[in-house]
Design a protein that fits this description.
By secondary structure, the protein is α/β, with parallel strands linked by helices. It is built from ten helices and 17 strands. Helix content is 23%, strand content 20%. The longest helix is centred in the middle third of the chain and has 14 residues.
């Protein structure tokens, strides 16, 4: 798993009293490189460094590079050796640290907008905090203009992004202005869009390629409300989806499968097919055993192989009704072959890995693999598949 953040960092020579500096990296070489505004030279022992240029140096190159620098410098652990030209980082100055905000070579880039949330989901992988973290949005607004124009997609996550109100709308507007060809995927519980005025303001931005990923965990409102630990959530979420679609906005329904809702999967699929048939995508998702899922493991965990039939029935029903449907975060050896065509490799590259049993599997390059972030439980049915058809 890639190291995306570290406190084991030294930053010197940066002027002012800012909390952090957001910068795009430029790969240095033997010839001098002119840096633009907001850029930082990624320097090695072979790099020509001009006087005063801000540089990022890995610890292994420090002895060779540091004596040649007279400007701002960041010394980072060797674990950041994956950093490349065009990546965007945040350098902590008040609390020294380094965070990778964007990797140009990765298809899985996302920004955490806030850790605040009005849900307390049993399986939340990013447990909410009641804190003022407005600085996260400030950093993202700095980062957006530095992102490569050819980037395929960016994700916005939380917490609950809609708690930001107008600041979320500002972020969406800035994405449209600076990255008009980049798809935007926003994870939200959807409840704020129950306010038709907010839904209308969001739609009025007219971002050309934005999708809201909104969870519905059961066709039974009480079960959904129990999973998210908030009374009335189901009704507000459904009304939010209806408002968004009335404004012509794209919506994805996301269903995380666990012990509390797996039996309801076919009924939920039927509810969606009958009442929300106009949504743009449905994702049936495996559980990530991290965050609150660790504390609630006995309440949530079920071997994916044990809901194979429910998943097949739900996915097939949705697909038969013409709804674009995907199965995320599942290993193919736990999924019925009839719905393999719907299975997607969805786990972000920085936290995706495979088990020793996966060696030699004929379909490994199509398989979702495992979350490196949560290894408390795994299916008892993991095995290498010898051929794609048997």
């Amino acid at each position: 798993m890639l190291t995306l953040a570290s406190r084991n960092v030294r930053a010197t020579g940066f002027p002012g009293d800012r909390r952090s500096v957001v910068a795009r990296l430029r790969q240095g070489n033997s010839e001098p490189v002119e840096l633009g505004s907001g850029e930082l030279l990624l320097a090695t022992s072979e790099t020509a460094v001009l006087p005063g240029q801000p540089v990022l140096i890995l610890e292994r190159d420090q002895a060779a590079v540091a004596p040649r620098t007279i400007g701002p410098a960041v010394i980072a652990p060797d674990a950041f050796e994956y950093l490349q030209d065009g990546d965007v980082v945040s350098i902590g100055l008040v609390r020294p640290g380094l965070r990778t905000l964007y990797r140009r070579s990765s298809p899985h880039n996302s920004f955490l907008l806030t850790e605040r949330c009005n849900h307390y989901c049993l399986m939340c992988s990013q447990p909410p905090k009641d804190i003022n973290d407005d600085w996260l949005v400030d950093e993202i607004l700095e980062a957006i203009p530095l992102i490569a124009k050819e980037t395929g997609e960016i994700g916005f996550t939380g917490g609950e992004p809609t708690l930001l109100g107008d600041r979320l709308l500002r972020l969406v507007s800035d994405m449209k202005a600076h990255l008009p060809n980049t798809a935007l995927h926003i994870l939200s519980n959807g409840r704020r869009f129950n306010d038709a005025g907010f839904a209308g303001a969001y739609a009025a931005i007219q971002h050309p390629d934005v999708m809201l990923g909104i969870p519905i965990y059961s066709s039974v409102s009480q079960v959904h409300d129990y999973v998210v630990q908030s009374d009335g959530a189901f009704d507000e979420t459904v009304r939010g989806i209806l408002n968004l679609k009335a404004y012509g906005q794209r919506v994805e329904i996301r269903v995380v499968i666990h012990r509390q809702n797996y039996r309801d999967l076919p009924m939920l699929a039927n509810f969606i097919a009958r009442n929300l048939t106009f949504v743009d995508h449905v994702a049936l998702m495996g559980l990530e055993m991290t965050g609150f899922a660790k504390a609630n493991i006995e309440t949530l965990w079920i071997d994916p192989a044990n809901y194979r039939e429910e998943l097949r029935e739900a996915a097939s029903l949705l697909d038969d009704h013409g709804l674009r449907t995907s199965i995320y975060n599942h290993q193919l050896c736990t999924v019925d072959r009839a719905v393999w065509p719907l299975a997607v490799r969805s786990i972000s590259d920085w936290k995706n890995e495979y088990e020793p049993e996966c060696e030699g599997c004929a379909v490994r390059d199509r398989c979702g693999g495992f979350f490196a972030t949560g290894r408390l439980r795994r299916s008892n049915h993991i095995r290498a598949i010898e051929t794609e058809t048997h």
